[in-house]
Structures are given as structure tokens and as C-alpha cells.
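Predict the 3D structure for this chain.
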Amino acid sequence: MEEKVRAHVRVYGKVQGVFFRMETQQAANKYGVFGWVRNLPDGSVEALFEGDRWRVEKLIKWCETGPALSEVMGVDVRWEPYSGTYARFDITY
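Done. Predicted structure below.
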């Protein structure tokens, strides 16, 4: 059985107004990761990813580049206990 993990992620750079949330949702759906993504007032993007470790790690790796119009300057990851409370991946506000 795959190890389930939870990652709280913060992405910095030119990551708002470049379809980052929408494309993160599409990537999460592609990789089978659940959770959410949202913009923060400081211009960064925050996300919570849950799922199989390898799937979450692929999505974090994707965030290091992001969509074509973005310019990612950094990604911070905080690993937390897996909760299993998410059944889909949402864009939140």
C-alpha cells in the first residue's frame, strides 16, 4: 500500500494572474492529488496536497516551474500528518 502524505505548500514569484491556481488544479487532477489552492494577499500561492507520496511529490515538482506565464522564485513545503479529509481538489478564495 502506498504511503499517504500531506504537504502544505507556498509558491513565491510571479504566480498570480498567470492561471497558476487553475493549472495547479488540472495538474492535481492529472496526478490524483486532493486538497486545495488559493492566492494570498502577499502575492504568493498557498496549496494543500494530500495523496500517495509519489503523486504529491510530482505535484510539488510541477509547482517549481508552474504554468508557462509564471515565474516561480521559490517553493516552501511543510509536511504535515495525512488527514484524508479531501475527496477532490478545489480552488478556494
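The mean pLDDT is 97.
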